[in-house]
């Protein structure tokens, strides 16, 4: 496996790691066969109910935001700003942010957005980003690689969870992609659930999906 230090374009290439295997006996659905709306995780046939039916279509966007789509007022600092941020940004816009990667790990699974898949290769990668490499979770945002974008980038770059963990953790990285307000986590973020002892992020605003990454010098 390989990963580019310019992730999203030409760059230096380094060795990476392999991804996990699907759970034995479980039907894994390739990204190009998983509907934008996803599928119910229990039967992998029926569509999910709202709000996931609509939310999943945002998670599964397959076009890169054009320059005209980018909200230039968005930065990591504005995404981490305090206060209830439910209407702070526009989910129809893209953004470019730069920050320190605090952690990289497999996202929640199974998820309806990914048609109930379980393997690392066919589930999201959660990248935790903060203003410093040792930022606590409650001072971070989450940006995500989706299975479709991992597959789309595969001919030239390795966006597997294992390789990204090896190559970008504790590095300063610029991410480009779509803004998304992840309703699934409004009770787990400081800005929308202040004082909750189980909060594990500052905001539910994400870059999701990521469409390119650039590792900074």
Model description:
This protein has 217 residues and is α+β, with helices and mostly antiparallel strands. It has a single domain, classed as Nucleic acid-binding proteins (OB fold (Dihydrolipoamide Acetyltransferase, E2P)), CATH 2.40.50. The chain has a five-stranded mixed barrel. A two-stranded antiparallel sheet has the order 1-2. The longest helix has 8 residues. It is globular, with a radius of gyration of 16 Å. The two termini are 22 Å apart.
CATH superfamily: Nucleic acid-binding proteins
* General shape: globular
Please write the string of helix (H) and strand (E) elements. Answer: EEHHEEEHHEE
Low-confidence stretches: 1-23
Count of spatially separate domains: 1
The CATH architecture term is Beta Barrel
Helix content: 10-25%
Report the span from N to C terminus: 22 Å
Structural class: alpha+beta
Instruction: Please tell me the overall pLDDT.
Output: 90
Question: What would the CATH topology be?
Answer: OB fold (Dihydrolipoamide Acetyltransferase, E2P)
CATH class: Mainly Beta
What percentage of the residues does DSSP assign to strands (E)?
15-25%
Major β-sheet, in short? 5 strands, mixed, barrel
Instruction: Identify the strand order in the major beta sheet.
Output: 3-4-5-7-6
* Count, helices: 4
Radius of gyration: 16 Å
Number of beta strands:
7
